[in-house]
């Protein structure tokens, strides 16, 4: 399998030329943005031409939809490179197949394997197919760097891959690469933390400016100068997170015997993922689920740092049978959504699942 999937990747890349109209569709978090930046740089060097368009997914909208299909068709896209989004997941595979009617797809992703293929002529690359590294720690940015480096020189972009690793908690799995990347770029771990904080804050507070962040990382000459004009968002988010964390410790619904806490965040902005990452570092032996209302839906984030419970499977099983419910992600970190009216059913199902696991 390792040789086969890498050969398929190589064939896709070798088929690219300046005649292609390439779109990059990537996730909105730090790993997704940095993976997209590395893919953009690589494709520019390989084809001699910039990709025709970049789509950054958002919390509110699925990365693939009928609108996405129409936009890609209108722009006459014939190749799609999609990092950090699991196109093999059922809901997305439906649209991937629609896109396949007019464009070939390369999907570089490190989430759970839902299917071994995303359609004839398309290429699905996951760490599970060629590496023994924990998939959740083999960030998509690092995968893009490693894979595209087979075809072009990406020297100077190591720090961007390192930023993606930090964003998905993968730096410890790649200690040598991570420290070397920072040293080459002349930046500190504190700077990486700052850049991740800025991207996370822009994603929450001013999502429409994410393309500006993308372009900044793409063109900045000195890594130390990256994202400076966006620093104010990090300070605002930090203030919101401190307030939300205090409320969590006061009002979360905790079940000590199940090592589980649920919390419904009330902040105006979508802070659930950032809040839960903060809490997961302090409650590593607790299954955490944070929900946050978004119109008629509730967005869900789940974490379990010690991996005693695979939270991707927990959420997937808890949303089964719920209309418009969906979930996915990694064993220690996952996300999903349900209709707000189904919150009671969801919470009950989670408790049932955890109780069964406790009795085993």
UniProtKB/TrEMBL annotation:
Organism in which the protein naturally occurs: Candidatus Iainarchaeum sp
Domain DHHA1: 266-355
Name by which UniProt lists this protein: DHH family phosphoesterase
SUPFAM superfamilies per record: DHH phosphoesterases (SSF64182)
Regions annotated as coiled coil: none
GO molecular function terms noted in the UniProt entry: nucleic acid binding
Pfam families per record: DHHA1
PANTHER family named among the record's database cross-references: SINGLE-STRANDED-DNA-SPECIFIC EXONUCLEASE RECJ
